Amino acid sequence: MVLSVLLAVGAFTLVQAHWILNVPPTLGFDDVYEGIAPCGNIDPSLRNGTITRYPIAGHPIGFLNTHSHALFEFSVATLDDLDHWEPVGGTLSTHGAGEFCIDRFPLPRRYVGKNAVLQIIELGGDPLYQCAAIRVTKGRPIRVPDNCVNGTGVHGEWV
């Protein structure tokens, strides 16, 4: 009985230690391998799923975070140079577990016309990685979709 309770608590803790990228759509999610760079053990060159049109003026980024406090870092690599990840946008400090949405996250102009990968690293303990396949375009920011929201008591600030 005690062993089964300990195993259940351990499994609950493991599940609680992760986050899920919702907007733009993640390349894939595997909670067992989310700690493997650069994309949680998902091949960053994958283009068989959704490729998000990402205007340099900004695109929403939304995720579910299970940590009460975490730091997030953002990087971009072009599809033809996946060994070079460029940090973009600074570091985001979030407070409160739940849904979080950045309504507009711009990218540098030099990426216009490029097929790229947006990498997001959560630093709420061990680093956890997720990525999205993007095609960087000119144009106005994308409207915030209904699934990009801020949960009650969840907020963030750039540090």
From TrEMBL:
Keyword Membrane: yes
Domain Copper acquisition factor BIM1-like per the UniProt entry, residue ranges: 16-153
Entry superkingdom: Eukaryota
Keywords (A to Z) from UniProt: Cell membrane, Glycoprotein, GPI-anchor, Lipoprotein, Membrane, Signal
Signal peptide from the UniProt entry: 1-17
UniProt GO cellular component terms: plasma membrane; side of membrane
Topology of the protein relative to the lipid bilayer: Lipid-anchor; GPI-anchor
Database matches in InterPro entries: BIM1-like, BIM1-like_dom
Pfam families: BIM1-like_dom
Compartments (UniProt record): Cell membrane
CDD domains to which the protein is assigned, alphabetical: LPMO_auxiliary-like (cd21176)
Protein name per the record: Copper acquisition factor BIM1-like domain-containing protein
Species per Swiss-Prot/TrEMBL record: Stachybotrys chartarum (strain CBS 109288 / IBT 7711)
